[in-house]
Amino acid sequence: MISSLHGRLLITILIVISLMWGAWFAGQVLQTRRYQEVMWDEASRYTATQMLLSLPRDVDLASQPPGFRVPEGVEPWTRELRLAFQIWLKKDGRLLMGSPLIGRTPLKADFRDGPAVVRIDGEQWRVFALSDAENLIQVQIGKPQSELDATARSWMQFALLIAAILFLLLAVAIWFVICLSLRSVERVQASIQARQPLDLDPLPNTDLPREIRPLVDSFNQLLVQLSTALEGERRFIADAAHELRTPLAALTTYAELALNAPDGRSEREALQRLMLAVKRSARLSEQLLDLARIDARPDAGGSQSVGLHELVLVVARDFEVMASKKHQSLSLQVEPCTIAGYVDELGILIRNLIDNAVRYAGQGGRVEITCRNVPATAGGAEQVHFKVADDGPGVPVEERERIFDRFYRVAGSSDRGSGIGLSLVSRAAQLHGAAIDISEGIAGRGFAVTVSFPSQALQSE
Amino acid sequence: MEPTARILLVEDDVMLADAVRTGLKEQAWRVDWLADAASARLALIDHSYSAVLLDLGLPRGNGLELLKFVRSRYDTTPVLILTARDKLSERISGLDAGADDYIVKPFQLDELAARLRAVLRRCQGRVSPVLRHRDVMVDPAKRLVTRAGEAVALSAHEYRTLLTLMESRGRALSRSQLEDAVYGGDGTIESNTIAVYIHQLRRKLGEDFINTVHGYGYRVGEALE
Q1: Sheet holding A435-439, edge to edge
Q2: A268 is in which domain, residue-wise?
Q3: In a 3-state reduction of DSSP, which class is residue B101?
Q4: What is the band of A293 on the pLDDT scale with cuts at 50, 70, 90?
Q5: Which end of chain A, N or C, is more open, meaning fewer C-beta atoms within 10 Å of its C-beta?
Q6: What are the tens digits of pLDDT across the range B74-105?
Q7: Is the separation of the CB atoms in A387 and B126 below 8 Å?
């Protein structure tokens, strides 16, 4: 397969043209041959008639054999133009006259009038016979078939020569036209090649043929997406650098305090603080990793059938120790719910919601996790609701809109969060086409987040 | 608890492995440590361990393959997998491949020890031969459940619920007993998940396969005299 567009176009066009021309040529050859045969038959009839009419009445008395000779140096017949005639007396089948070329055998042995093709000495002859009105004599005229073919052949050779010349001219013309039309593609290619790495400005799309323009347009669209992704990456690195520095500074400080502690009690105290700071930075790095993972994820493809209730259970168990340390009650009400989704990203969503609830519910607080199917309502499809509610201090109504923004922290919250958790939840929900609702938590206090996933109709599981 | 229990730790991070070994030795466990899947595979063929602590991301073959290999030999040694927090899919496939429990990195040593004890406790006295009730057959060695000869697909938790009920056939088990056997947690989470698994099991094995003992729990088979 030729990969160049030029070559492919040229070859295809030339092949099509030569096929069509070949068909036309074959038709012409057949037609010409037929035409020549008819013409020859007509000419023979005319010649035979003229001969018949010019014969004397007493032709049967003419002396035998011919009494005249041609002068020296004149050939009696030529190889190229072999034409033979015979005049037969019909009643006793005697040859009255005949060209020496053919001898004494009748051209047409059956003596029937009209045209025919006969075989003489292993050669095809086209002959014509004509009798007079009284059926006394018959004139026979013949010509070898190869003579007729030779005429046709010379015509064919001429036609082929002309075709070859036209073909070459056509090829050159087509090549020029193709080059001319592909120049705009080459221009686009050159402008891509001349780019700096990470130059994400759109390509110029003016002066482009209608066929190329969509290509350039979608490429530009891709560039826009890429630049958004790159922008996100840059922002992430900047954010992460800032967020990681603070806890690391705290770690160093506490470690130094522990090392320089004057007595065992203050050393232990410093170590405990160090432990807290370690946990905080561990959580932060996990969230930053989640952020990077979920940001880098393409929006579609590869989703699978997931039993949300199973995931909720598995993730909720991670919080057992933390909740029991804070004397919290964690309750889980689930029913089998199947959605189409991505396990790891759903894990991020579930974990961050439960983590927030356990974090903010405080000592002896309550956290309720529910996961249930909600039947289709008017104008809405069947859904799966995943809800996490706590009885902590909650979030002021005016701030509820903003808590899903990245690095937004509710003012004055004691257990200082990273401001990443809910933005992860929001991104994961968006990935699953799920909606997020915020409401009051348990018993008129606290805070509840409900994520509504589109349900996946299920037969077997 | 067995003071002489011998644990195989398969973990490629030297720092973490060292910390875990030190911590577990202090609690009187004996710990063998291997850093890659291939040598762990050999060790599991040659020795018998009380439990395996298995990291899933390993050099020279991954942990999940190793787990599948262990279970394919009908080896019922309890396996506790160590996974990263963001790899929920890994955890789920680990459970489905026959892991007994998992612990999420970074973990605390006392939590690890508690989980390990729970796993060992659950496995003690577990009978390996095939369990049958009506047309349902459970083969713990192969981790296979069939109903009338047809294999039934169960999630890891559904399977453990069924196995626990079958092992104490004829005796009623309370919800918390079941919960303890299925997850081995400390019971802080109050949930209806056992009811969900019972519901799923009834759907797959027949509505009357598991009896409800009102106000208490569930039972497979008729009550023993």
Answers
A1: A435-439, A447-454, A383-390, A366-374, A329-334, B189-191
A2: 211-296
A3: strand
A4: confident
A5: N
A6: 888 889 998 876 678 888 888 888 888 888 88
A7: no
Compute the half-sphere exposure of residue A99: CA atoms within 13 Å on the CB side of its CA.
16
A234 and A374: one domain? no
Pick the CATH number of B6-123 from 3.40.50.2000, 3.40.50.2300, 3.40.640.10, 3.60.10.10: 3.40.50.2300
CA distances from A256 to A272, A302, B39 (A): 13, 49, 41
Both A288 and A309 in one domain: the answer is no
Cβ–Cβ gap B191/A331 under 8 Å: yes
* b (16+ CB within 10 A) / e for A42-76: eebbebbeeebeebeeeeeeeeeeeeeeeeeeeee
And the tokens for B123? 């496995």
Q: What ipTM is given for this predicted complex?
A: 0.79
Show which of residues 289-328 on chain A sit within 8 Å of chain B, judged by CB atoms. 289-290, 293, 307, 309-311, 313-321, 323-324, 328
**pLDDT digit string (tens) for A94-128?**
888 787 767 778 888 888 888 888 888 788 888 89
pLDDT tens digits for range A128-148: 998 888 888 888 888 888 877
pLDDT surpassing 50 at residue A461 = no
Query: How far lies A160's CA from each of A151, A154, A167, A197, in Å?
Result: 15, 10, 10, 56
User: Which of B15, B56, B85 is the mutation pick for testing A, counting most A CBs within 10 A?
Assistant: B85
Q: Are A439 and A388 in contact (CB under 8 A)?
A: no
The beta-carbon neighbor of A330 closest among B189, B192, B199 is B189
A145 vs A432: CA distance, rounded Å = 85
Pair type for strands B101-105 and B131-133 = unpaired
pLDDT for B108 beyond 60: yes
* pLDDT single digits (tens) B27-82: 888 899 998 888 888 998 888 888 999 988 777 778 888 998 888 888 888 899 98
Q: How many other C-beta atoms can be found within 10 angstroms of the C-beta atom of residue A367?
A: 30
Please answer yes or no on whether B86 and A347 come within 8 Å at the CB atom: yes
**Average pLDDT value for chain A:** 82
Q: Which of B95, B188, B192 sits opposite A333 (nearest CB)?
A: B192
HEC string for A24-56 = HHHHHHHHHHHHHHHHHHHHHHHHHHHHHHHCC
Displacement of CA B97 from its chain's centroid (Å): 10
**Does the CA dihedral B103-B70-B20-B50 come out positive or negative?**
positive
pLDDT of A215: 85
Q: What is the CA radius of gyration of chain A?
A: 51
Question: B38 and chain A: CB distance < 8 Å anywhere?
Answer: no
